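Re: duplicated header lines in exported structure tokens

Our pipeline writes sequence and tokens for each protein into one text file. With two proteins the header for the second block appears twice in some exports. Here is an export where it did not happen, for reference. First protein block:
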Amino acid sequence: MNAANNTCKWYPVCPMKYYFERGKIDRKWIEEYCHGDWDACVRYQMEERGEQHPDNMLPDGTIDEVLT
């Protein structure tokens, strides 16, 4: 686990940032993963491996069909 004050390097271009800024996802996702334990984020792990993943996949790997 990395320091809580670190931000994921992918955050500036991550759909989670977009969804959060538009009020579509709860702050807990950003605090827990993007500005917290981002190496536990499934999106981060897949990005690091160069694997495709849908924009509406949450950091825990679940797909939120409401997000577009």
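Second protein block, exported in the same file:
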Amino acid sequence: MSHARIVTLRRPRLRFGEKIYLGAIVKGFLLTLRHALRTMLGKSAGARSLNSSGMGVTMQFPEQRWDDRMPEYYRGAPALVTDEQGRERCVSCQLCEFICPPKAIHIVPEEIPAEDRWSKVEKRPKEFEIDMIRCIYCGMCEEVCPEQAIYLRKDYLITGLTRADMVHDKRRLYEIGGVRTGLVNKWNELK
């Protein structure tokens, strides 16, 4: 049986300046001063690519915008779209409402009258609201939509003066969504 050997380690003795952290404080101050001077005398790293004013990398909003440098993968505000003939693509399946993590989407479906040419579709949204304050722009509503009726736009300027202004109704969602081209299963007469 082997015996464990005990090793005693001694901490190094600190000098007076090290005990009061004087060296670390001075080093941090000089580093901060160097960054401040570099920012004041010229452009900081990254400022040129942001078209900054020269005082750091801060974009001067609203004069300067991200619009021309928006990444391809950016997910902005959700909106409803129509087809080329101005018809609603939404069939009120409510999948987007059910999958929405913060429960920001509210849909009230209605039946399409029997005398309507497209009565085979059965439903359309009577009310469709998205609370932009609750929306987390995750894109799950866009992914789950079988009719490609809801899209996330590259819009980051969503403002309102009241909470009611931030609840986009069906009219507003179609207004900001616009028109999408392509086959829509809902309007396919062969289905």
